[in-house]
Amino acid sequence: MAAKIEAPRGTRDLLPEESPAWNAVEAVTRDLSRRYAFERIDTPLFERVELFARGLGESSDAVEKEMFRVSGASGSDEDRAEWALRPEPTAGIVRAYIEHGMHVRPGPLRLTLTGPMFRYDRPQAGRYRQFSQWDVEVIGDAGPMVDAELIELAHRFYREVGLDDVVAHVNSIGDEACRPQYRDALVAYFEAQEDRLTDDSRRRLRVNPLRVLDDKELAPDLADGAPRSVDHLCDPCREHFHAVLNMLDTLGCRYVLDHRLVRGLDYYTRTTYEFFVAGSEGQQQALGAGGRYDGLVELLGGRATPGIGFGIGLDRTVLALREQGVAQASRGPLVAVLGTGEDHAERLAVAGVLRDAGIAVRPDGSSRKLGKQLESAAKAGAAYAVILGDELATGSVVLKNLDGGEQSTVALDDLVRAVTGGGAGQPPPT
Ligand code: HAM
């Protein structure tokens, strides 16, 4: 036997038994995108490395350690230097915004993208090299209301998929006016205790001191005593943050202030947030995250335009649903259409009548004995078997309930009603 080939490390196959959970979660993302008036945008899965280096920052983990380089057909080193699979969608969306002159459209723009992201990270539970995000971005709105709206939207998402107990961690990391003073205060504080920092933190202290707070191995007392960004905000940043928190209070959104929440990507300004199942914060397994990036459009070559968004990790959402034992709603009955002779065209025609009514149908394409076809239908989880036989000549079929076993002859015109229980409601689309 030839050697087996396995999926790459850090990737997973989404098997059919997992698809009901994914379908349900994706249906919520689509419905919320509609209800919150977001328009879909799709960008390439790979972009120039420079886009990420400039947008997310050379010293961000995503760029420095986790960039998934891809080569063109020639595979030359030059090629490899140029392209990377996207580690996140925000930089690509902002690139597209600038490239297509989208600033002339009536704003603020509300854009959404769902799809795979790639980070060449050390794989572990909940951390993959390929994972999916539901991302939303609002470009062109500087006011605090949209910050609160997005945090409320994320809360609603978790509620509607059925996750309990999700809490937002929020912080404000200021802007170019007040961040330098905060950075200086952090550097002074950590330099005085440099011997207690990890090697990684000592390096971060030189290139990006805020990220020292991100170090999971930072001693708790050192973290607790560190200067807090909220104490160094300039007046406009402080007012903005207070307004956001007031709105969250009014809306009853659950949040905690998290002074260590500096986020790993350099483009953030002002409000930042991450979502956790309450009590699971220590594992650094955020279910979703985001924040404001008021300088990013300009940094990538556009005119100064504020922006804000979030990315929700769909893999982690599905995992959390499984951990909380949330079952997915039934998808409505599955119907098998079976036949007794060379009636395959008729099987497809009858399947079509049921499908027109939104019913899921699995026609049997074999010429096996009816008993064998019934066995396969039951194994596939069908609730009913529609059996085509001599009655077809008079416009009827046999309908067999595979749960109870009873069967009856039903006119084709009545078949949909018989399968859906006579109610007006059709099974929900999946
Ligand atoms: P991020 O925090 O890097 O932010 O990722 C957002 C979410 O994606 C995380 O909270 C997590 O749920 C999921 N995620 C990240 N890495 C992995 C991984 N290796 N495996 C599984 N899930 C993962 C961003 O990507 C920003 N673009 C969010 C944003 C949008 N900020 C403004 N707009």
Explain the layout of strands and helices:
Layout: H1 19-35, E1 39-40, E2 46-48, H2 49-56, H3 61-64, E3 68-70, H4 77-82, E4 83-85, H5 90-99, E5 109-118, E6 130-139, H6 144-161, E7 166-172, H7 179-191, H8 199-207, H9 220-225, H10 235-251, E8 255-257, E9 269-277, E10 288-292, H11 296-299, E11 307-313, H12 314-323, E12 334-338, H13 344-356, E13 360-363, H14 370-379, E14 384-387, E15 396-401, E16 407-411, H15 415-419
Parallel strand pairs: 1-5, 7-8, 12-13, 12-14
Antiparallel strand pairs: 2-4, 3-4, 5-6, 6-11, 7-9, 9-10, 10-11, 14-15, 15-16
Bound molecules: histidyl-adenosine monophosphate.
Distance from N terminus to C terminus (CA atoms, Å) equals: 39 Å
Q: Helix share of residues?
A: 25-40%
SS elements, strand count = 16
What are the distinct ligands in this entry?
A: histidyl-adenosine monophosphate
Strand content: 15-25%
Structural class: alpha+beta
Strand order of the largest sheet: 1-5-6-11-10-9-7-8
Radius of gyration: 27 Å
SS summary, helix count = 15
- Overall body shape: elongated
Determine the mean pLDDT: 93
Low-confidence stretches: 423-430
Largest sheet: 8 strands, mixed
